[in-house]
Amino acid sequence: MNLPEAEIMSVTEDIAKLRNATKSFDGINERNRWGFYGSEIESYISSFSTVLPVDLLEFFREKQSPVIIDLMAHTGSIRNLCNRTGIVPKIAVSVSLQDQRTKGEKDADANLNIYQLAGNLLNFETWRKLSAMLSEQKADLIMERAVLGLIHIPGSKKFYNLALRGLWNILDENEGLLLLQTHNIQQLQKTGVNLINWVKEVEKCGVTVNLDAKKRALMLQKHPNSSIDLPKF
């Protein structure tokens, strides 16, 4: 993420309140209760099936040594993707509030260049660490399917502008895929985030973009001729 923008996000009053609220989040209990946490890649494919422009498994295989990011997630989904395709990423990072992996999971991840970054996405420090781990490499695939975890993320215009434009900045221009689960479309409109109109503006920027409002699924694919930045809400 662009560091000055991330700094703004970090000190914004409304986001700071949400950041404090997540301090009581019990990640261990959430892992036991949420059946989708660390789920197989087919579950992701199902969630984004109506917006994906390509077969995700084939897309991954063709990249050979891809760079992957999975936000608000356990490493299990990326590990399953690697095992399904036989591809070892150059680096893959899952970001969640806690590192809840077992020793066996950590060993398996180490063999696949998969890392778990424990951090809150509402903290600038988490984005700084992610940027350092990527070491200026661009991501071929960025995923976020937080499901119930979205209650910990603000559905505000300020956050959506910063997050989307920040993720776009680290997405590879050579057909990089950004897959995001959004808040309820109608609720977002009340905060000034009109995704339907925004998608129409994004289409003018040399970007492949699909939105399924019912499934709350958003896909953006970046091309060499795509705009450097995304439109604001």
What can you tell me about this protein's structure?
The protein is α/β, with parallel strands linked by helices and 233 residues long. The chain has one domain: Rossmann fold (3-Layer(aba) Sandwich), CATH 3.40.50. The chain contains 11 helices and 7 strands. It has helices spanning 3-11, 13-21, 27-33, 41-47, 56-63, 76-85, 103-111, 124-134, 157-169, 185-190, 195-202; strands at 67-71, 91-96, 114-118, 141-144, 177-181, 208-212, 217-221. The protein has a 7-stranded mixed β-sheet with strand order 3-2-1-4-5-7-6, sandwiched between helices. The longest helix has 13 residues, at 157-169.
Range of strand content: 15-25%
Distance between the termini: 18 Å
CATH class: Alpha Beta
Structural class: alpha/beta
- Enter the CATH topology name: Rossmann fold
Output the helix-strand order.
HHHHHEHEHEHEHEHHEE
Q: How many domain regions?
A: 1
Radius of gyration from the alpha-carbon trace, in angstroms: 17 Å
